[in-house]
Amino acid sequence: MTTCPDDIELTKALSAGDPAFASHAATCASCRATWEATLHAIDVARQREVPMPTASEREAMRTSLLAGSYTSASAPAEALVGLGRRRRILWIGVASVAAAAVVTLVILSRSSEPAQGHAHASIRDLDGASYKIATTSPDEIVTLHEGSIDVEVAPLHTGERFRVLLADAEVEVHGTAFVLTARAGHLINVSVRHGIVEVRPFSGHPRRLTAGEAWSARPPEITVAAPVDASPVPPTPTPNAPSEPRAADAVARAKLPRSEPIAPPSPPAPPAQRKPYEVAYADAWTSMQAGDFATAATAFMRVSLLDPDGPLAEDASFWNAVALERGKESTRAADAFRFFIDHFPRSPRIGEANTMLGWILVDARRPDEAARRFRAALTDPTPAIRESARAGLEALAK
Amino acid sequence: MTGKLVPLRRVGGVGGGVAELSDEGLLAACGAGDVAALGALFDRYSDAVYRFAGRFPLIDKVDRDDLVQTTFLEVRRTAGTFRGQSSVKTWILGVAANVARVALRSERRQQERQAKYLEQPTTLPLRVDEQIEQRKLLARVETALAHLSREHQVVFILCDLEQLPGTEVARILDIPEGTLWRRLHEARKAIRTEIERGDK
Lengths: 398, 200
Ligand SMILES: [Zn+2]
Known about the structure:
The complex is a heterodimer.
Chain A: H1 7-16, H2 19-25, H3 29-46, H4 55-71, H5 86-89, E1 102-109, E2 121-125, E3 130-135, E4 139-146, E5 149-153, E6 161-165, E7 169-183, E8 186-201, E9 207-209, E10 213-216, E11 222-224, H6 247-252, H7 276-289, H8 293-306, H9 313-326, H10 330-343, H11 350-363, H12 367-376, H13 383-397
Parallel strand pairs in A: 1-5, 4-6
Antiparallel strand pairs in A: 1-7, 2-5, 3-4, 6-7, 7-8, 8-9, 8-10, 10-11
Helix pairs in contact in A: 7-8, 8-9, 9-10, 10-11, 11-12, 11-13, 12-13
Chain B: H1 23-31, H2 35-54, H3 61-78, H4 88-103, H5 107-119, H6 129-147, H7 150-161, H8 166-173, H9 177-199
């Protein structure tokens, strides 16, 4: 870049860390001054204090949101009309943690005819309990905060549901009898006499309980009194990481004979120790090797999403772009390369990414950005990448 | 291809809870009415949305909480429209930005609050000159931000404070990239000018 960029170019360059502009600013005092003043302004703006909610404020919001989403689920979707709905659905309080009375909810199966269009459950208040019937049949929700209630549930038919919602879990009934205990809105224990109950803590594994089984919020998490139906054992994930990711193929389009081998993914830990993003990463390479680039791209993206700051995020972001490119998803591949370049400007693969993006843009007939991307790769330490970038610029000149 | 990416398979195999679903999986489940999924999305991203909302100049707690709640209600309502063209976090912040554009537009209320804010007597430890200078600097930025249109505020907050890529921001706000860069330029310039004015 020999001439000074205009306002818009400068704005973009500041956001994307454009190396072409950086080299221009190194020699142009005027642009450097604007650059530094702008960075200073942004820096000051970032220092403004942002008050965050307390834990209990956040919890109150979460609860009202979940409870509110039940209440409005049966209503037709309304268009956004503005704020002010919060107060209407903020009817359940969770701030009072002092009164930790035990809540016992007994649900008994009843053999009467199914109710039609009205509640399946009849609820009796045992000790001034704090509860609410949020919705009625066919998707009945009872929210419970404090106290004891005795509930009788008629058998449910296809399409009908009955659930109890607490601050930190929900319990779904499948025609059953069980005892449920809560404190200050938090689920403590569920034990099943007969039928099936599904316990879904909002921050843990859901669990399907059958007769004789119990769920407890504290370890041991599950005590099985009489195992009726053991959960299936999770399949052992295939631990074989690909020995040779197709790095050479990936850059072949850019005519880049890559000399050094690309490091294969780190050997996965034994299944029990593998983190979700490691599983996704291994899955991605399995798909890549099988030539299933769409699945690979999704899995690489999942790695980034599961652990955006983790050790595999940079690699996954790059290979997500490569997988899209190999799957002929040019537009999305270009976006993915831009994302990688923006987010990992210090990656050793930055030149490679710029070059590959450059070639995609040549095909897409976007010569300006293509030239910019190729130029950014001209100083890459790898000769083959510099060569490819030069070839790209030559191709554009024709 | 603009197909929706919905990896519904639970990471980690059988028995994985919503806590282990991918963001896209959570959104899909949320769109299908799964309340636990909405709860899990809230757990993952309420921080980001609170922070985003709290960055609007002169916003009070009631408006901030309204913005956060309406955002997640909108996330639930429109989860099915996610097309995988940005990260889920960016998409949720886009929802929040659009809520803010529609809902936080009571200009008069904002102006009243702004007047109050600027009238506030300074009760600072006078000994610490640097603190005073810093406080003045922040107040100038607050003022400059408050004078921007809501559209400019949104762009500045997303691009420069949340540091999201401009191309993604343009997409989630549904505005041309050129418009985005122009607004960002104008917002930055206004803040820069206000800081420089104070330096003189
Ligand atoms: Zn210059």
